[in-house]
Each structure stands twice: as structure tokens, then as C-alpha cells.
Amino acid sequence: MAKLAPPEAPQMIGLDWGTSSLRAFLIGNGGEILAERNGRDGIMAVGPDSSDPRADFSRIAQSTIGDWLAEFGQLPVLASGMIGSTQGIAEAGYLDLPTDLGDLGKHLTTVELDTVDLRIVPGLQKTASETNAPDVIRGEETQLLGLLTPELTEQRTVVLPGTHTKWVTCEGTRITDFSTSMSGEIFGLLSTSSILARLAEPTDDFHHEAFDWGVQVGSDDPAALTSSLFSARTWALDGRLLADEVNDYLSGMLIGAEVASQLILNTESSAPVIICGSTSLTQRYSRALNRLGRETVVADPRAAATGLFRIAEHSGLVPIKENAHA
Amino acid sequence: MAKLAPPEAPQMIGLDWGTSSLRAFLIGNGGEILAERNGRDGIMAVGPDSSDPRADFSRIAQSTIGDWLAEFGQLPVLASGMIGSTQGIAEAGYLDLPTDLGDLGKHLTTVELDTVDLRIVPGLQKTASETNAPDVIRGEETQLLGLLTPELTEQRTVVLPGTHTKWVTCEGTRITDFSTSMSGEIFGLLSTSSILARLAEPTDDFHHEAFDWGVQVGSDDPAALTSSLFSARTWALDGRLLADEVNDYLSGMLIGAEVASQLILNTESSAPVIICGSTSLTQRYSRALNRLGRETVVADPRAAATGLFRIAEHSGLVPIKENAHA
What we know:
The structure is a homodimer.
Chain A: E1 10-17, E2 22-28, E3 33-39, H1 53-72, E4 77-80, E5 94-96, E6 99-100, E7 109-112, E8 117-120, E9 123-126, E10 135-137, H2 140-147, E11 155-160, E12 165-171, E13 174-181, H3 183-193, H4 208-220, H5 225-228, H6 231-238, H7 246-265, E14 273-275, H8 279-291, E15 296-298, H9 303-315
Parallel strand pairs in A: 1-4, 4-8, 5-9, 11-14, 14-15
Antiparallel strand pairs in A: 1-2, 2-3, 6-13, 7-8, 9-10, 11-12, 12-13
Helix pairs in contact in A: 2-9, 3-7, 4-7, 7-8
């Protein structure tokens, strides 16, 4: 079997193991992705009625990366995401805010599987106060480390859009605050199961004018969101909103209200907002932020792989390269 | 058959014929309700695949009030609600805002059924402007006439809570504005189909402390609603919100954000807000408004019957009594 020559020599395996998906990365000694696999075996693939969850997760790991382990010898395997929750293979704990992501590598949890030791990254938690609800993230901390560098000392806002979009405030790799918005899940419910769904015709096209119109309505008065949403129905009945535009109008309104509300909270910095997510959602959040006067930077959506490599460096699982990030 | 003596002599039949229900009132010559029937034969009972919708609606009317018509002779029959829409028996049109509800009786639509002429009340419509979406109501105009009197010349706000809650601004019986909030439908979706539903245990009890907490969170920053909603999950995971309290916390937050946003819009008057709806929703809106510093008046939920009687008077279907409202 042909061996790969440095610098492409595989150095570790990274797993971004979430609720509904498992992404595996074969990572080289400079942190570069040598191979990538995307599967649907998120932690939901092992149900609460499993008699031996650890064995089930072990089998999934073996079928996903067993050939890499066999081909390249015993590589370190590092995982982030919901695999480290009570519904996953083991509770990997949390670091309390404020915290520096450089500390993640010092708090790994090790689970011995049949064929390999699995190291798991802790999440981050915000404890409750008089005015703020508690909140946790798990998986996003690794993405954040992958896209942030200590040199970014100015306060920055990072958006990780999804079903539950995370808004994170940081200075360099130090995380000071985050919050979760349900606008993605609410969009899903309204566009499939509400009275608004009856007038909408889903399409794969992006109707940017309808989206921008929604952003304007949502951001003009974010407090009136539950009223403004009904205008998707009345404009559609009126004929000025076409059936295939309803969902983009709705998406724009929800994202517009969310972005406007978050920008009110984050006025201390005017630095570009960093966005990391799927192409479609990144485009939408970037467009809404730009329309509301904020510049954006779109980060590499494979930041999780970079984050896993950095955590492996910090923890000593792989040697630190001289030019590596601290 | 025993005849009723005046003033209890039946004078008319009123139908509050909505999307999912049909309420029939036998009304005396002073406007009093002599008998009432509540059925589920809303306009949805006649589907779009009916070969003869008019005949189907006629049969429903006959089975609901046929015995009253037979017993008391040919009484005028007046209906309000979605029966007057394109999905109903005939499109009964709209009056444009601003309008006086005293004019409703001049614009009835007559549909000849097999056994009786059915008169239908028009709805109200707000036409679109640069900044406002169009909106319509159908059925609520009759409730409003039933609970308002011309003597209330000060600007008043009326709330008609439901799946789609209506907020109406009026001076006496003159309607100047209204808007629709989807908070009721959003509550239904979130409490049954979202990630929040997994931690909630529905109960029939009203957990007023959880509701009040939600009102506070929702009204403190209504613009942040899509973020604040997630706190129902994090407080429940934290243990400070019990499973049987989650839905009331959620209900309080949605109503709190809606009420706070509406009070910002309606600052011209400090008169008590009038609420007309089901006991449970009336209690919730009243509690939220009171906590936010506004007095409330709870109107008779059978205002539709009173409104139908007044419209019958205005249109000449029944004689106007000397002491009747104009």
C-alpha cells in the first residue's frame, strides 16, 4: 500500500459528531484536510432504547473511520459536538464563560472504544443570572476555534446559522457571551405547518427581492414580529407577493428581526460580523447584515476540522508546529 | 304549542358562522338571547370538492335552525363571519377603514336558500399603504358592534384574542385601524411541534407564576423574541422551570411581547383596553396588560349576538326600539 509522504502524512482523525450528522476528517500534519466523509449517523442514530449505547457508537465509529485506522496506524481520534452530551457516548462537561478556547484541549474526556481511544471536546456554558437565562453550546466551540485567531483582539460577533442560530461575542479566542435564536426552527414550522404555508409554493430558487422586502419589514420593527408575519398572508392574498416568494419573504422577516435585535445588543464594535454555516443560510444572514449596515466575513464552513486540529495541538495529541496558532 | 309572550317573542335568528364553528342565536325583541346552539359546522365542513356548496350550506342551516323557523314563523336570519367569504356561501364584500360600524346594516348581501333568505354582514378591510400591509377581518366587526357603544368617544383599543388575535383601534363605533398577531398560532406550533415541546408536560392548570415570568421576559425586550423563546428550553434543562410550567411560560412570553409591542403603538389613550374572547385567553391578555400598567375591561363573549341584533335594527330587518343604540 502506497504511503503518503509528508506534509500530507495523516496526523489525526477529527469527528464533528452532531445530533443528526457525523462528519469525519482525515487531517494532515499541517492541519490540512486530506479526506472527508459526511454521514447521517448523528447521535440520534442510537436511540434511548439501545441496550448498549457505547457499543453502538463504537460500531458507527468503526464503520466510518475503521479503514483509515487500519491503513495509517493508530491515529489520535478527537470528536466534538453532541457526542459529548448525556444523549451521546459520554458527558464531556462544559467550560464556563468567559473562557479562552485555547483551554479546550486541557479538558478532554477520554472514552475507550474497542479499537481506539476517543477524545471528546467539552462544550461551553453560560450560567444563569438575574437577567439572563442559562445557555450551552456543544460543537460550536470547536468551529469557533477553527475560525478565530488570537490576533483578532477587537471585540467580534460570530454568527453560526442553523435551526438554532448561535450569536457569539468574542475577543480573539476568548468567548465572552453567546445566545441562541430559534428563528430557523420557527421558519420551518411556519413554512410547513401554519396558515402561511397554504399560500406558499416552495422552490429551490432564491427570490432576493422578496427576501429583502422581508428583511426590511422585520428589521423596521422587530418587536412587532408576531404581527408582521401575518403580512405574508395578506400580501399574498393581495397578489403583490407571489406564491413562490412567500417563503423567502418569511425567511427575510425572521432573519431581519433577529439581526436588528442582535445589532442593538452588539453596538460596541463595528468590525465585520463573521458568519460560518451552510451556503444558503450564510448568504441570507450576510445579505441581511449588509442591508442593515454591517460588513460581513464568510468563514470556511469546515472550520470544525481546523478547530479539532488546534485542540489536538493544545492537548499534545499532535505536535505543535512552529507556525501554528497558539 | 305554547307561544312566548313579549318581550321574549323571538324577533330574529343570528348566526356567527366562522371557519370551524357555527353558533346560532334565537334573539328576542330587546336583543336578548332566548336560545343558543353551538355546532362544529363551520365553513370548513363544506370542502372545496363540494359539487353544490350552496345546497350544502343550506342543509346545514336547515338542520341548525329549521325547527326555530318552523315554530316561530319566518324570522329574519342574519349571519356574520367567514360564511361571507369566497370559501363560504357568497362573498359579502368589505367596508374600507375608517368606517362606522353603524353602516354595516346598509351593506348586507342576500342569499336565497330553499327555506329562508340569508342576509350576510360585510367584513372590514384595511387597504395597503407604503408602510402597512393590507388586512381584513370578517366576523369581528359584528362582535365589535356588540361590545362598543357610540358614547365611548375616547380612542379605545379592543383585543379579540384567538389563533390570530385582532387588535382594533376605535372611537365609539368608528373603526380607525386594526392588525392581526399570529402569537396564538405560533404558541400552538411551538408547544406541540418544536424542540420546546419535548420538555413540556401539558396540563389544564394555569401556572400563573410561570406565565407572569414569561410576560416579564417577553415584554422586557419584545424585539428579542426568537432568542428569548429558547430560554424555555434552557430554564427547563436547568430545572428552574418545571415540565408542567413550560407552556404557560411560553404563552406568557408570546403574549408579553405582543402586548408590549402593541402598547408602544397605542400610546394616545390610557383608557382601559377592552378584551373579548374565551375565558382562558381573556384571563391571559388581561393579566399581561395589567402587569404592563394598563387597565382592562372584559366584554361579554357573546357580543356577536348583540352585534347581529344591532345590524338587524340598522338594516330594518327588525324594528328599532326607542332605547336602542344608534
